[in-house]
Amino acid sequence: MSGDQHDYQLISSLRYDKEAVLSAQWNTSRNGDKQSPYLLLSYTVDRLITAAKAHSWVAPPELTLDQLESRCNASLEGKDPDQSYKVMRKNITQLHPETHDIVDSHHPFTTGENFG
Amino acid sequence: MVESAPVPKLNNPGDLFVVATLNPTSALTISGPLVFVHLDTKPTSPSVFTSTKTTHREAYNLARTRAGIPAIGVEPGTPSDVILFHPNGQVMETSIRNIAFWREDRWVTPSLQVGCLPGVARRLLIEEGKIVEGDILVTDLKVGEILLLFNAVEGTRLGELYTTFS
C-alpha cells in the first residue's frame, strides 16, 4: 500500500547545524563514524521505516542514510551554509527536495511546522 | 519531499543534550527561556497517529487549542506547549516534544506503550542513560516543577509546568 493513496504523510524533522552537530561525537558515532551536520539522521531513517510498517506502507528502497542525506543536501542547496536549518522529510513514497525560507526568531516555533 | 527552513542558533551550541545532565532540584543556570507547559484538560486516545509522526495532527492541534496555545507558526514570543495524556491517566508527550520528569534523582520519560512518539532525541537520551522509561501519572504532576523537553530540532531544553488539574 502506498502512502500516496492517503490524505496524510509521514514526516520527520531534524536539525542541520554545522556548529552544534557536525563535530559532536555522539552524532558521528551514530552516523557510520562519519561527521554530519544532520542530527541523528540514521535514527530518522530507522523511524521512518518503522513508521511505514506501522501504516502498512512500503518504504521506498532509496530510503537509506546516504540517499536521505543527499536529498537533504539538495534541499539546502543555495542556502547560507552558516545558518542552522530544520529539515522536514515528507511523503515517504517520494524523495523530492524542496526548499523554502522562513523568518528567523529567538525560538523555532515561527518556522511553521511541527517538531516533535 | 524534503523541505528546509532556518531555525535559530543555539544559546549553547556546545552540546544539544547537556540540559539532560542537570539536576533540576539544585541551583540551575538556564540559558534561554523556559517553555511554559500546560496539562491538557482532556485525555488523548493513543493511535498510529500518536505513535508515528504524520501530517495528521488533529490530536495535537486540539490539545494546543484547549490550552490556549496558538497553532504552530503563529505563536508569539513566549514558548509554550501542552502535555497530552492517555485516558488511563498516564502522561504521553507534548504537542511537539517528548518529555521527562525528575523522579527519584533521574529523568523519567513515558514508555512507548502509552502511545507516545518514539522520538530520535528520546532514543539517544535513553541509549546514553540520561533518561529512563517509566509511568508518569498526571495526578503526580506539580505546578512549578521543571520538565525536560526534547526533539530532533531543539535537542533538549527545560520547561516549567504551568498548569495542572486544579
Q: What features would you describe in this structure?
A:
The complex is a heterodimer of chains A (116) and B (166). By secondary structure, chain A is an alpha+beta fold. Chain A has a single domain, classed as D-amino Acid Aminotransferase, Chain A, domain 1 (2-Layer Sandwich). Chain A has 3 helices and 2 strands, in the order E-H-H-H-E. Chain A has a two-stranded antiparallel sheet. Chain A is globular. Chain B has one domain (18-26, 37-163): D-amino Acid Aminotransferase, Chain A, domain 2. Chain B has 3 helices and 9 strands. An 8-stranded mixed sheet of chain B has the order 4-3-2-9-8-5-6-7, covered by helices on one side. In chain B, a hairpin with a 5-residue loop joins strand 3 and strand 4 (91-94). The termini of chain B are far apart. The mean pLDDT of chain B is 89. The interface between A and B is large, with 65 and 51 residues. Strand 2 of chain A pairs antiparallel with strand 1 (2-7) of chain B, so a sheet runs across the interface.
Question: What does this entry show, briefly?
Answer:
The complex is a heterodimer of chains A (116) and B (166). By secondary structure, chain A is of the alpha+beta class. In chain A, 26% of the residues lie in helices and 11% in strands.
What characteristics describe this protein?
heterodimer; A: 116 residues; alpha+beta; D-amino Acid Aminotransferase, Chain A, domain 1; two-stranded antiparallel sheet; 3 helices; 11% strand; disordered C terminus; B: 166 residues; alpha/beta; D-amino Acid Aminotransferase, Chain A, domain 2; 8-stranded mixed β-sheet; 9 strands; 30% strand; globular
Q: Which pair of chains has the greatest number of interface residues, and how are they split between the two chains?
A: A-B, 65 and 51 residues
The name CATH uses for the topology of chain B is: D-amino Acid Aminotransferase, Chain A, domain 2
Number of alpha- plus pi-helical segments of chain A: 3
Task: State the CATH topology of chain A.
Answer: D-amino Acid Aminotransferase, Chain A, domain 1
Report the biggest beta sheet of chain A as strand number plus sense, adding barrel if it closes: 2 strands, antiparallel
> Would you tell me the structural class of the helices and strands of chain B?
alpha/beta
- SSE order of chain B, as H and E? EEHHEEEEHEEE
CATH class of chain A: Alpha Beta
**Physical arrangement of strands within the biggest beta sheet of chain A:** 1-2
> How much of the polypeptide of chain A forms β-strand, as a percent range?
5-15%
> What is the quaternary state of this protein?
heterodimer
CATH superfamily of chain B: D-amino Acid Aminotransferase, subunit A, domain 2
CATH architecture classification name of chain B: Alpha-Beta Barrel
Largest sheet of chain B, in brief, is: 8 strands, mixed
